[in-house]
Amino acid sequence: MPETLRDYFGNTVKPTVDEYLSGNGRFNIRKARLAAIVVEHIIDYYSLAYKKDRAEVRKDITDLSPLYSVVRDTADATKHGSLKRKNTDIKENGQIKCPPGFFQTPFGEGCWAEAIEVYVETDDGRKISLENAIKEVMRVWDMKISPH
Distance between CA 29 and CA 36 in Å, rounded? Predict the structure, then answer.
């Protein structure tokens, strides 16, 4: 594996994703957004390392992981605030959400059974776990990048 890709994947992507997925990080929207951004940018490093067109690599990753679009849209919406691209799951950063925890809600409004996680609310009303999307896309990148 080319050194720049190895360095980015091992020293930036993996620690950032691990920090998001460990302990209470899973409930932290900042850590979720940062994880999505670094995972999305593997495309740039992979394309550069293997001299492949980014659109071609993006299509390959999408074919292997349909949830890649959620990670990409989260990263781009975080960076730009809104998305102008066609075929996106979301249109703006406000669709990346994390409900407050039970002890952060006003008295009388909390619910013990409420799931607390960062999710993306798509334009068609679906709620997709960002944790699951990132895990799936990382599984694909691990297959493509990590030595066997």
Answer: 10
